[in-house]
Amino acid sequence: xxxxxxxxxxxxxxxxxxxxxxxxxxxxxxxxxxxxxxxxxxxxxxxxxxxxxxxxxxxxxxxxxxxxxxxxxxxxxxxxxxxxxxxxxxxxxxxxxxxxxxxxxxxxxxxxxxxxxxxxxxxxxxxxxxxxxxxxxxxxxxxxxxxxxxxxxxxxxxxxxxxxxxxxxxxxxxxxxxxxxxxxxxxxxxxxxxxxxxxxxxxxxxxxxxxxxxxxxxxxxxxxxxxxxxxxxxxxxxxxxxxxxxxxxxxxxxxxxxxxxxxxxxxxxxxxxxxxxxxxxxxxxxxxxxxxxxxxxx
Length: 298
Ligand code: OOG
Ligand code: NI
What we know:
This protein is an alpha+beta fold. It has helices spanning about 5-20, 20-35, 60-70, 110-120, 140-145, 155-165, 165-175, 195-205, 280-285, 295, and strands at about 45-55, 75-80, 85-90, 100-105, 180-185, 215-220, 225-230, 235, 245, 250-255.
């Protein structure tokens, strides 16, 4: 297990993501200008997220091999019945690396028409591409994560998918681009270290937040609180040169509260182990909608 390779892969993901999502720099600059942090390096990345197509040779079974190779451990499963998604989270080999939340579309549950559209693209992948990848070569992995896995879709196919599964449309165009990174708010300075305070700060800066199910998503135990921006829109070029504005990636914010049994531990001794771990289906279900037209078109 090579954490230096993992570090380089993460740097590549974050670099391309920041270029694609102007809100990343906007939030960081606002935090620096507001004296919340002195530099971007102080930000703790709670987790990053990826989306995949659940078809042969792709999906989580293929994708997860990359991060399992770097020492990530597969943890809990989450099921999104209406959205037809399965997700897992993966804990990092060292605590300074982000958790990973990766999901997969259960393509076989879609209509025949949507399945046909998706398979027209993904069937060109005849063997698991991760098997022929040198995972110890960070540049090769970076290239893989940002390369076209299939041909550029037509606008008609994209729009047909959009009607049935916004997630499917997102993946057919955006593939393995980083879906979001997540700023941990609980370790920020007082006044910004709760999600309510941080959301107020973001709203003051004019950032547009996902309102699905309420701006702040709260787990039933009350200890995982999340919010996210509405996805950045991109001018996408489709097959044949058609242009259309589509949803790209977004930014998330998370507060992990100290677990009840550790609430007496002195603040300066609190580490990741004392806080709420994992994810929450009810929160995630609404966070997915950060890229849906119900949010981006508001
Ligand atoms: C992932 C949405 C869920 C979380 O933290 O629960 C999520 C996605 O939009 O792909 O990020
Ligand atoms: Ni997330």
